Amino acid sequence: MTMLEQINLMAALPELLLLAAISVYVLVEALMGQTRQLPLDKMALSVIAVPAVVTLFQIGSVPEVAFNGMYVADAFSHLLKIFVYIAIAATVIYARDYGRDRGLHKGEFYSLTLFAMLGQMVMISAGNLLVVYMGLELMSLSLYALAALRRDEAQSTEAAIKYFILGALASGFLLYGMSMLYGGTGDLSLSGIAAAFGSAETNRTVLMLGAVFIVAGLAFKFGAVPFHMWVPDVYQGTPNSITLLIAGAPKLAAFAIAFRLLGEGLIPIAVQWQPMLIVLAVGSLAIGNIVAIAQTNFKRMIAYSTIAQVGFVMLGLMSGVVDGSASSAGQAYGASMFYIITYVLTTLGTLGIVMMMARKGFECQEISDFKGLSRRSPLMAVVMLIMMFSLAGIPPTVGFFAKLTVLQAAINAGHVWLAVVAVMTSLIGAFYYLRIVKVMYFESAEDDSPLTTRFDARSVLAVNGAAVLVLGIIPNPLMNACIEAVRQALGS
After folding, report:
1. pLDDT (tens digit per residue) in 417-458
2. Domain spans of the chain?
3. Coil, strand, or helix at residue 364?
């Protein structure tokens, strides 16, 4: 084996080991699952631990570009992968009892979840358009199958069909945009595309059209307005455990490809694509927060909340280049990265509580289901209060600091009016978040029986709530890590 081959294999070791571990998992489950009761969740957590350990050892190492520029192992990818592992592992733990009560505690659920995680890891480390698309399709196809796992339920089947059709449309948009980038530059690598803008032979009109399709496809994956139609229906229609798989870690992967494509590959024409993100941000902030007020179904409310939160991510992404200068890109993109990471942590706790409150024959989906939660389970009520405060941007939770850093990036980029719009729409959004707190603490439930859950799920929930609170009080270590990771990826 040559030195170059060794470097390539070592750089992609987390993905290679994960693929091998998933293959072993599937074989063991298929061969032994019919004859004995296997601890499928514990096996899945063991599989997740394999790449997690390798990635932890890679942190702090020299950035590596492997497989002729197709794969990138840098601080940006390492940091996002760590939180992907956390998100998937927490989902597996939260979903254990919920899945057993609904026939989802089986090999297909866990193997598809692991394949979706592999796709997310490939997306995060992609340095080439083909690798971006390969990771995207691996993740998307796994999530489509998960959404349709409960074939006997009409609502789940309907949600899966909507998710598949609109997801395929978004993938088509991205693929068409990528083909235009390749046609305009003759290069598939993101670094090569960025370098091609300095050439007189580059067809900038084709590249601009490609950028339009790229932004539209990314907006679909984020669930940004006006490409948000699938989000409320899919969130409401899918089982809670699968809703969390769709709402959590995939957002990290979506941010990764948005940064790779726009922040690395298309940064020379940022002046052209930033106005598109402004439209997406304003629409998402306004429609997401306003429509959420009218919702009585908690999962639909969270879906519109997600749309609004994506608006803040877009604010950070469109604030990186000012007057043709990318000197503030590290701060702006780092703020956006910090925001999406902390939002995923908050979503884990929020939907984790929804799963822990559900019982066999009862789905916790309506806002009224949270009545009297403070008496039924003080831990769940306190954690949900922290999560709602964070989503609303109330100090000292991490949501306040995340919103503040994105607003500072927008103001520094000269978009003061956008910061004002974001603040005003966030004030509107605070109403429906605080309504959940009011229902939990000031309304009585018909059923006052205590909620009992497994110790491991309670422990993860407590750590989840503490993380959202502690990161709000001491945000600088994670914030600085995000900024440094982005600057390293941009080569600045």
Report:
1. 999 999 999 999 899 999 999 999 888 877 677 777 888 888
2. 3-490
3. coil
